[in-house]
Amino acid sequence: MRSNIYKFGELIEDVTAHPATRRTVESHARGFDAAHDPVYADLFTTVSSFSGEKILRFNSMMQSLEDIINNAKLKRTMYHLTGTCSGALCVGWNAQNVLWNVTFEMDKELGTNYQARLKNWILMAQEKGLTVAGALTDAKGDRSLKPSQQPEPDSLLHIKEVRSDGILIRGIKAMICGVAAANEIFILPGSSYREEDKDCAVACVVARDVPGLTIVETRRPSDNREYEEGFDIPDTAITQAYLLFEDVFVPRERVFLCREFQYCQKIIEYFTANYRACIGACVAGQGDVMIGAAAMMARANGLASTTFNAKLIEMTINNETTFGLGIGAMAMGKIHPAGSWISDPLLAHTNKVHVATLPYETKRLCQDIAGGIAETGCLPSFKDFTDPCYGQLIQKAVKAGKNTSAETRARTARLIEWLTLGAGVPGCMHGGGSPDGAKQVIRLNTPIEEYIQYAQKIAGITEAVPEPEKKK
Amino acid sequence: MRSNIYKFGELIEDVTAHPATRRTVESHARGFDAAHDPVYADLFTTVSSFSGEKILRFNSMMQSLEDIINNAKLKRTMYHLTGTCSGALCVGWNAQNVLWNVTFEMDKELGTNYQARLKNWILMAQEKGLTVAGALTDAKGDRSLKPSQQPEPDSLLHIKEVRSDGILIRGIKAMICGVAAANEIFILPGSSYREEDKDCAVACVVARDVPGLTIVETRRPSDNREYEEGFDIPDTAITQAYLLFEDVFVPRERVFLCREFQYCQKIIEYFTANYRACIGACVAGQGDVMIGAAAMMARANGLASTTFNAKLIEMTINNETTFGLGIGAMAMGKIHPAGSWISDPLLAHTNKVHVATLPYETKRLCQDIAGGIAETGCLPSFKDFTDPCYGQLIQKAVKAGKNTSAETRARTARLIEWLTLGAGVPGCMHGGGSPDGAKQVIRLNTPIEEYIQYAQKIAGITEAVPEPEKKK
Amino acid sequence: MRSNIYKFGELIEDVTAHPATRRTVESHARGFDAAHDPVYADLFTTVSSFSGEKILRFNSMMQSLEDIINNAKLKRTMYHLTGTCSGALCVGWNAQNVLWNVTFEMDKELGTNYQARLKNWILMAQEKGLTVAGALTDAKGDRSLKPSQQPEPDSLLHIKEVRSDGILIRGIKAMICGVAAANEIFILPGSSYREEDKDCAVACVVARDVPGLTIVETRRPSDNREYEEGFDIPDTAITQAYLLFEDVFVPRERVFLCREFQYCQKIIEYFTANYRACIGACVAGQGDVMIGAAAMMARANGLASTTFNAKLIEMTINNETTFGLGIGAMAMGKIHPAGSWISDPLLAHTNKVHVATLPYETKRLCQDIAGGIAETGCLPSFKDFTDPCYGQLIQKAVKAGKNTSAETRARTARLIEWLTLGAGVPGCMHGGGSPDGAKQVIRLNTPIEEYIQYAQKIAGITEAVPEPEKKK
Amino acid sequence: MRSNIYKFGELIEDVTAHPATRRTVESHARGFDAAHDPVYADLFTTVSSFSGEKILRFNSMMQSLEDIINNAKLKRTMYHLTGTCSGALCVGWNAQNVLWNVTFEMDKELGTNYQARLKNWILMAQEKGLTVAGALTDAKGDRSLKPSQQPEPDSLLHIKEVRSDGILIRGIKAMICGVAAANEIFILPGSSYREEDKDCAVACVVARDVPGLTIVETRRPSDNREYEEGFDIPDTAITQAYLLFEDVFVPRERVFLCREFQYCQKIIEYFTANYRACIGACVAGQGDVMIGAAAMMARANGLASTTFNAKLIEMTINNETTFGLGIGAMAMGKIHPAGSWISDPLLAHTNKVHVATLPYETKRLCQDIAGGIAETGCLPSFKDFTDPCYGQLIQKAVKAGKNTSAETRARTARLIEWLTLGAGVPGCMHGGGSPDGAKQVIRLNTPIEEYIQYAQKIAGITEAVPEPEKKK
Predict the structure, then answer these.
(1) What's the rounded Cα separation, in Å, for the pair D169 and D185?
(2) B35-46: per-residue pLDDT in tens?
(3) Is A269 helix (H, G, I), strand (E, B) or coil?
(4) Which pLDDT does position C27 carry in this prediction?
(5) Helix C406-421 to helix D448-459 angle, to the nearest 10 degrees?
(6) Euclidean distance between CA atoms B452 and A177, whole angstroms
(7) Closest listed residue to residue A326, CA positions, set A281, A368, A373, A265
(8) Could you tell me which residues are beta bridge partners of residue D217?
(9) ipTM, 2 decimals?
(10) Rounded to whole angstroms, how far apart are CA atoms C234 and B377?
């Protein structure tokens, strides 16, 4: 592939070897390894509903409750294996499922033939076993203005020109996860739009190295350590990129929505319903690793992990809450007439609120158990740990538990730092959308007037109790 | 039926007419009404897996995820209709499903024929459309002693004698819900037991008025109001009773476990897994009524309910969390070889912890929105409200919102008092077992060593990290 | 005194003997007992700053940090002695201190002589050792309308007529605590007012039995039990009344603010600053009793109280947080030029938010430790407990811990019911004003722009960062 | 001073110029600047109780409530100025005050003359205006073993030899804050000790560059950025060091406790009482900066900061709770006979529990308001921001609010990253001791038996309710 990814002003020639992207590529590779590992193969592969062939699960259509529950299980497992987010095994997967349903509606109502195009692309992706990142979030510009009011039109990715053979897109998608490990990028609109903003209504797929696309990786806490030797950072990572589209051409066959602005709301609705149901599994999986790290740290400190049972239980409760509530959202969902599962929005958005809060408590508990050494990474560097002059003294200082080496204690402390204060923090607050947005959906899905009627009947109230008129 | 229920030292001649039990009977009756109401009939009836006949759902076997989700939905609906717990539509239902699975195991392993007996009884219950309370909790006695060590053997219900035609049981079951509205009482062991305590290992079913059984209803907050005229209490209620068994004879056909102590653990395990999954729907349903009551109160105070949107959303989040996590526990459950569904214990017990905390917050939010008048029932009595001398002044004081009468505001305040501080509080803390017990189950179901291995691999730690040896 | 208090449509002839008021009078009497008890005398008495005589502390001016801290300590102690609120030892006390400062300002700025009048009254109150309830909260009417817009003018207490020798007041004060045990009632405006509402701007003091005043006590959870024999309710209580003023004459010497609406804001400001600082001690004191009750219940259940150490510690943390933050508000306060202490508003209102939330958690923890018997008062009545026929069986059922009688367990369960779900719940949410109001004060007292400047300097930002202009 | 500080295996020649320490030195320097700034001078200077001369406040004895409140105010102000912890203006200050009291007790009881030595040193420190770091925490070794049982004696700093002219100390103090900016280091024992561990009982003061002392700075989140150009890190910092003592000689005059193990408990008790009272001001000050940063970020995003009023209020509540509760602990404290203030331990330790939890919530709220760009530092680096090729596009992507530049938005995002996930996180969990330790102190200071007596009296229980006997 063409080199088009930059970080720290430097072009990354080979994503599989460069320190800024190598770990992310390897993290994603564990998903492919799992597909060939007897322990995980059932979870990581499935049969294509189109071709009947065995495919990677993250390229599949989710056509039943069992299918979507396996999405959640796969993500939790990926966190177990990597400790963090593998964006290119996740967003694109959900995107194609959601579009499968929406193109069905569009074709039916508008007479378009988007679904056939999408099917062709999915078949190709299944056959090749592609990793597909998803790009929704635009740079956005001024949050108080609509897209068409933005002084800088490139603040949102938009259609610059529609040609007979395809479209020209330009603008900026921001904070896109896993691109460095992706073969392709599935583009969805970042919001619902009105008529005047319809140029932003675009869904399509592009190769990661498509001409006109420049990718700049963001810097994250302690990411310099990725350039170092030693154990100050674990051998796994996450990337988040800004995608700069400068008149990128997308051929017709890869365009699945083009200015049909009235369908963006549907895309957002379906996408968030599934995504926010499944994201509970992600934070649960990372929380599981935090339980393991905290218990290991207790032992490395010389204490039994059972000393901290109450806190470990609290951590589990947090993990299982987001996991189980997500599963509940799936189970209360339903199959779309087009054939792909849509989770229940009320439960899914309720879950998002927990996903934006409980992991913070789990991190706090992890630091609480681990002690000062892990709380703020309060530990000399690998270089100091191995310094020929005073390194032995540092190791003496770090050694604690009888059965564990100084290095084990140091590595565990660094893992906890990375999980709670470092590049392993995957952005549960705003990733997949902000909790404030979720609360709006919750409000819209709460039938207050119906609940008032229940209360009225139980209280024996017969007069109507309307909302007071607004004062003028 | 024989009169054997007492309260305040008085024998209740007719449970359908006496103020202490009338409301509970009527609450349960709403379940029967619903079975004949086109809006609710699908939820409140189903087809018997034994006879193929249409039956009340709360007499059915739950043989699929859909079946058990309908259990949760039915309970949430019952709370919508009554504002509180209808114990006799719930515990007995779960009890017979759980025993269906356990008698299957017993028959297979011990060569008993319990399941056939149970089937006969269930068929009868389905045919007659019985309401069946369930009785698990024993009086217990000294919590630090095992049953066989109790100075007072009647602290637990136990088998006094096994005869050829049946058994003689005696002892005390406490805090049993809905008995006054029940036809029969399904008895399960209250805990797991060891060999020496095997007399407490008994499962059977008795008529509510079986000879030798005396029932004493407990007194609950503000229950005197049930004896009054007026609106200081809504027209719905809950009952909780002490069951005093003095050598009650249970014929063989109604005995489903008799001293096989080693199966009590299974009963508790299956029972709590389902019960704690479903109880999330109960507290959600009551929370829905609290949302309705709070919104109504805001209006009765003269304010738009939207003023309190943030708090109403928080209430919804609490409700949907326990509901949805319960559904998640069901969806991660599985069918027992005998044919009845068992929910996932880890998620179910996690849910119990939330059931023991979130409703307290929902109540607090309800009082927060409602204002001082509802917080502590700070409102003159119905008698004062209608006093010929100063009643008009009291009504003037209570009248607030332009569109609502003083009576509506008073009734709403009393409903909120009842829901948050009164007899409508159904005991979400210890009902269905205590959260501390749930936490033990959570701990047992958390694979800490497995999580440590994930953490080790990510941190690059190769040495084993065992728990330190215990000091002697 | 004239009989003018009613409950359940009945005139209470003697407040010291009638079951509806007797316990409240006795609760307040414990404050007088304490003044003569060597253990408590230093706290419950002090020296008058006016006369130099020894007086009851709750009639004193608070002229130093030590003085106001003793206010908090006295309240916490009163809760230790009674388990609940003794309103007539508290609100009137604060009212006179606050008015001392405000009359000083008024006299200085308006040339009035209110302070001299107030001093005379205080001297009399100190000499006679009066208990003085305070009345701020009006019935209010429609919460979306200002006083002068209310369809019912009596929704707020207001000046009907100003005469040369005094004023005529009418209207309704609601939810006034401790009146039954009070000699006098100190009236303050319930809010700040504008010119058009100036008739509501009135501060004065009246005898509890002043002609034209009718008092109706509200009904509270389980208050019927006050009319019964036995131990289903403890021997202490709280009262909250509606005060119906129908053209009550107040002589000049007892009027301290009369239509000077622009000073109402000051009164509210000073009153809430002190009140919300001190109320932390009240809920702490009740929380202490809950700790005692929970620990006692654990033992009565047969368990060591240390089993619940983590929960008991959490309860203490809640108690000490509201107590200590209140003390912090006092310590950051200052002496008013008139001589009476004013606590810091930002910390006092922050405390109010905790006072409206933490006691709910303390109650939950208390129920958690105590078990099902106390959670919802799930226990047969005293009548059933002593029933000649089955009472022995009930007592057998209730007896648990080896060292404690069935009666002790029952009494403890009833105490916890009363504290957490009964008439002992003193209204920490809206009592002394609602938390939403407190949050507004907090916002007003947070110097956001100053904090932005700190952030700017640390981030090295030099351009101004103004609030965006409002769209039109 | 002698160069004896290392980081990344490199000797730091000049702490005022080296990137690893420069910012910390400058942060501390702001305390000296403030002493000469008319706005702050009253807070940052005071009069010596020994010499009557004007001195820096952080070298003073705290002899009154006002004095110790000024300690809290000074710390909150330092956080306003630097955004983080200035350890050398804080721990040493408290250490000398605490030892002033303890040496008084020792001299009185043991006939030693430690206080006179201490006074001489304090006079010198006041005269020279020294910054003094404090070192309590030892490396500790195996947490399940006492000091004398440690396989590695250097795990704790200990007395190797007592000579006539002084002592020889060796061992390791870990995670010591602000050493790089300190002139001297005040050493206190890290725990209470028994006879067999008395070599660890040592209090003394050494110059930062004393022979035999090697200092290794720890690495903290994103500390590499301190070596870079640009705005990816603000111009302020914190340091935390491991102090390796290899037979360091301390002359008699600088030794204030030498093997008198029975006084270590007192030191810990007094030290934590003051420290945990004051630390509430530290986290409040950092929380204030987070409020400023969040409000600024909202504007930089194009939104009014008032959009987030509810969250900003919650942040203020967190800040004022730890600040105000700390003040409460001070106000309930008392003057020691030796003349230095001791805060109330129960309130101080309660505060520590909040200090270990509330800042995590404040950080979460800060990230919640700020959006994804700040949550995980999801922003390209300064190098990419200014890249000649695509830098303009990145700036276009980052620019949002109409009135704010892209650079302001980027700088604010980096500030929030630093405050919530970076080197500005000062370790509120275990800094100054862990919350679990605080909870033990809380338990010891809760008079449970007294609270039981209150509960008993209110419930009318006359029999004793003892703790059950332990089973054998």
Answers:
(1) 14
(2) 999 999 999 999
(3) helix
(4) 95
(5) 90
(6) 27
(7) A281
(8) D241
(9) 0.96
(10) 19
Query: With 80 as the cut, is the pLDDT of residue B470 above it?
Result: no
The helix, strand and coil proportions of chain C, stated in percent and rounded to the nearest 5, come to 50, 15, 35
What's the pLDDT score for residue B472? Answer: 60
User: Which of D366, A193, A145 is CA-nearest to residue C469?
Assistant: A145
Which pLDDT tens digit goes with each residue over D12-62?
Answer: 999 999 999 999 999 999 999 999 999 999 999 999 999 999 999 999 999
Helices and strands counted in chain B (H then E)? 15, 14
Judged against a pLDDT cut of 70, whether residue A472 lies above it is answered with no
Q: Which residues contact B146 (CB under 8 A, 6 or more apart)?
A: B194, B196, B197
Contact A190, A272 (CB under 8 A): no
Phi, psi at C356, each rounded to 5°: -85, 0
Name the pairing type of β-strands D5-7 and D213-217: parallel
CB contact under 8 A, B400 and C429: no
Give the residue from chain A lying closest to D433, CA to CA: A372
pLDDT in tens, D77-98: 999 999 999 999 999 999 999 9
- State the count of interchain CB pairs (< 8 A) between A and D: 244
Rounded Cα distance between A84 and A425, Å, is 7
User: What are the respective helix, strand and coil percentages of chain B, to the nearest 5?
Assistant: 50, 15, 35
Rounded-to-integer distance, Cα D187 and Cα D201, Å:
10
For residue range C250-272, what is the model confidence (pLDDT) as tens digits?
999 999 999 999 999 999 999 99
Distance (Å) from the alpha carbon of B435 to chain C's nearest alpha carbon:
8
Q: Measured between alpha carbons, how far is A95 from A125 in angstroms, rounded to an integer?
A: 13
Directed axis angle between helix D358-370 and helix D406-421, to 10°? 160
Average per-residue pLDDT for chain C: 96
pLDDT per residue as tens digits for the range D232-247: 999 999 999 999 999 9
| Residue D242: DSSP 8-state | E
Closest residue in C to D330 (Cα) is C328
Q: How many helices (H) and strands (E) does chain C have?
A: 15, 14
Q: Which residue stretches of B113-235 are H helix? A: 114-128
d(CA A415, CA B263): 44
Question: Taking CA atoms, what residue in C is nearest to B228?
Answer: C224
Cβ-nearest to A310 among C310, C468, C471:
C310
Q: How far apart are CA D417 and CA D420, in angstroms?
A: 5
Q: Which two tokens stand for residue D15?
A: 């702490």
Structure confidence at residue C328 as a pLDDT band (50, 70, 90) = very high
Concatenating the DSSP letter of every residue in D267-285 gives HHHHHHHHHHHHHHHHHHH
Contact residues on chain D for C439, CB-CB shorter than 8 A: 310, 313
Q: In what order do the strands lie in the sheet with A240-251?
A: A10-11, A5-7, A213-217, A240-251, A166-177, A158-163
**Rounded to an integer, what distance in angstroms lies between the CA atom of residue B364 and that of residue B358?**
10
* Planar angle of CA D252, D258, D260, nearest 5 degrees: 150
Task: Write down the pLDDT at residue A432.
Answer: 82
Cβ contact A6:D384 at 8 Å: yes
Asked whether the beta carbons of D23 and D16 are under 8 A apart, the reply is no
Rounded-to-integer distance, Cα D271 and Cα D263, Å: 12
Residue B184 has φ and ψ, to the nearest 5°, of -135, 165
Alpha-carbon distance D319 to nearest alpha carbon in chain C (angstroms): 10
Alpha-carbon gap, residue C311 to B468, rounded angstroms: 28
Cα separation, C315 vs C295, whole angstroms: 11
Please state whether the predicted TM-score (pTM) of the whole model is above 0.90. Answer: yes
Q: Using CA atoms in the order C326, C328, C332, C337, what is the torsion angle rounded to 10 degrees?
A: 40
C-beta atoms surrounding D108 within 10 Å: 12
The secondary structure of A270-312 as a DSSP string is HHHHHHHHHHHHHHHHHHHHHHHHHHHHHHHTTS-GGGGHHHH
Please report the pLDDT score of residue C472 as a whole number: 61
